[in-house]
Amino acid sequence: MLTKRxxxxxxxxxxxxxxxxxxxxxxxxxxxxxxxxxxxxxxKDLSGLTKxxxxxxxxxxxxxxxxxxxxxxxxxxxxxxxxxAEGNANDARESIVKISQVALLLFTAxxxxxxxxxxxxxxxxxxxxxxxxxxxxxVGCFFVPIICLWKPYQAMKELWRASQNPFTxxxxxxxxxxxxxxxxxxxxxxxWVSASEMINVNGKTIDAxxxxxxxxxxxxxxxxxxxxxxxxxxxxxxxxxTNAAKGLTTGVxxx
Length: 255
What we know:
By secondary structure, the protein is mainly α. Helices cover 74% and strands 0% of the residues.
């Protein structure tokens, strides 16, 4: 396995870099190729995939704001007498918004899953040891009942720490943004499921629809916050991994 950079004498690092540069060898590529040989994983720049994911997270926040507005319009309608045409128009608008949200959520989940997988492989390619959650399991645990309540958080926490410095990650405290991200996800999911259940079971009365609408608006507000926090989280990890890859060739501590 790779030796910790902090144990490499500066003279050796400088001589090695100078020799590689003299031979017109890309220093970063050479070091990462060595890491690949030792770990079995190849480092791949996350920048492009992160931008792609952030675009859909931003889209999710925008659609969440549209959903909040639509929910407020529905709540206003339910507080007064309305015609059948107004009711049908409201139902059509709400259906379009909710179907769009579900479709976007599924598509974003696929991209996010691929991003998590790639990011987990990267920290191993950068030399991180002692990681307990494999790249595939870091994604798969989201879909296992009961375990999905805490294991994805542990996986993301481990990934965030290992990205900051692959060699000393176990000594690095987790970011405060992690519990906020996970709390938003759990509460959002519970609110969304509760609102859907209210509509399906008791949604035929005005009072039940009003209550469901309030919960639905709350879930959409949470969704906006979740998307924004997720953008910060993936940006931090992507930036840390880029710096860690550069640090491999300079001997500079990326902590």
